[in-house]
Amino acid sequence: MSRGFKQDLFNQFARVGKALSNGNRLELLEFLAQGERSVEALAGVSGLTVANTSQHLQQLRQAGLVASRKQGLKVFYRLSSNDVISLMDSLRKVAEHHLADVEHLVNTYLTVKDKLEPIAREELIERVKDDLVTVIDVRPAEEYAAGHVPGAVNVPIRELEAYLQQIEPGQEIVAYCRGPHCVLAFDAVAVMRDKGINARRLEDGYPEWKNAGLPVEVDSDE
Amino acid sequence: MSRGFKQDLFNQFARVGKALSNGNRLELLEFLAQGERSVEALAGVSGLTVANTSQHLQQLRQAGLVASRKQGLKVFYRLSSNDVISLMDSLRKVAEHHLADVEHLVNTYLTVKDKLEPIAREELIERVKDDLVTVIDVRPAEEYAAGHVPGAVNVPIRELEAYLQQIEPGQEIVAYCRGPHCVLAFDAVAVMRDKGINARRLEDGYPEWKNAGLPVEVDSDE
DNA sequence: CTAGTATTCAAGTACTCTATTGAATAGTTT
DNA sequence: AAACTATTCAATAGAGTACTTGAATACTAG
User: Gap from B209 CA to D7 C1', in Å?
Assistant: First the structure.
């Protein structure tokens, strides 16, 4: 009995592992870490067909990672709890530490990585309090509206150049987006440094900020 | 480029998820959480053939979860870092919270669960300091020898009855084994309660204790 | 009630994973 | 060198997974 029990139990845990065993599902989870999304929206950002997205979402639900809610025609999915964010973080940490390929990828795509030293959440909070930095949220407007770091200005990548015209010279800028590997913030910092602006990125993104229990601001007209 | 990068990155993370997507591999990881083990030993405890075990271990290695070392004829595998234990913990936590089946399983096999309130590590440390409890390690002798909670007595399940003859009545006993779902400790507590002994189990097991940075004792003659 | 929309279901194909088997390799002992 | 042992490799059958396509469902708006 004891053997059967353990076997059964590990098989249950493996169901969660299975859900995490596909890159597309992990991408869906990352988007869901920012808040509720419809199937259509998720299909859009992931580049999958709607039917395929729906099937992946159902697998995630069966593994207990996401939950859904129907409103009118649309079905909205969300992470079933913050434990899922912690799990994703653990996964990322292990992958980063132990998969040489991940490091290689990051170095290939983000060549100036070393020069973009990230700023920690705690340090950012201090510097914002002392009014030393401007925080910009480089995600698309709709993601920003669904929740963002208090006081952050929404500057989607396309609007970055225009935005930079109007800032005071010498002002330090911190950019963040969807998470520690979201390229938007890397890109933004690279652009700003190019122009001689003192820019850094937050070490991780909005989902982690929210998950850490820090205050968030929501635009209620969404 | 940004899309390709993200896709690639998530596929790398998915490699780790894949490694966690099979119950046998999770069982192997749990054993490895206790320390280095040879392929043969791992095949023994998991009930798999040696060839099959070897192949699973290679998958775990490719995912960066385990590392190996050759000594003479034998190859010893170990977890590649403590991050892996944290990852397993996250996985367990999510599975427990969100999979109804896990709860069902635990309740089916461990019917007296509610009566076996676990004791937390911190509380145990206090009570040991005040000499209020005896700690017993119900794992097999070889696992105990490889590392155990300081001051714990090794009482493999088969020797439990004999051991209980010689304890003072009224003494409180805390049992632990391999982790929060290791049935050995549940069984031991059930047996002792049957005999009217004041027994509880530690909320988790040796791997978690060690991982929490608490002191451990090793029998050097192993 | 009809037309339209968001999502899910069902079936099919190509692909991948698991466990088994027997052979190959690398190291030890005699 | 020959016999032996622990592990790995290679090939295979069977089960499971991913993505596509087209139809079905469930809800809304007219």
Answer: 32
